[in-house]
Amino acid sequence: MRLRFKVDKLIRDKLPAMMQAQGLSVFTRRLDDAEFVGRLKDKLVEEAVEARAAGARADLIDELADLREVVLALAEASEIAEHEIEARRLAKRAERGGFDDRVHNAAVEGEEAGPGVAYYLARPAQYPQEER
Hints:
5 helices, mainly alpha, 132 residues
């Protein structure tokens, strides 16, 4: 009896041949530009979740390499040069800093009508209000 599994995700170019060599039938298609960008964004999240779960150093290196591959592919598909990303990274670092000091923010508090509070109110799923 043959078993079939739903995959429904972007995969690396050489994987279909590798799977076929293992005796699997692989059902693929080439994505158009818009779907490719969308699937790369999905892949970015998938790889980030895997990096988060990585325990051993070697596993983290593998997942960070996968993340970088997806970032580079997404940039190219979106016609963004690597130097543009690096320039923006450096500008944001100059404006906001990096992560060198390992700062963790547990919460923020402000007056309801205050200018800083609007940002958090506009993102309730990301920043739920705490009961006081």
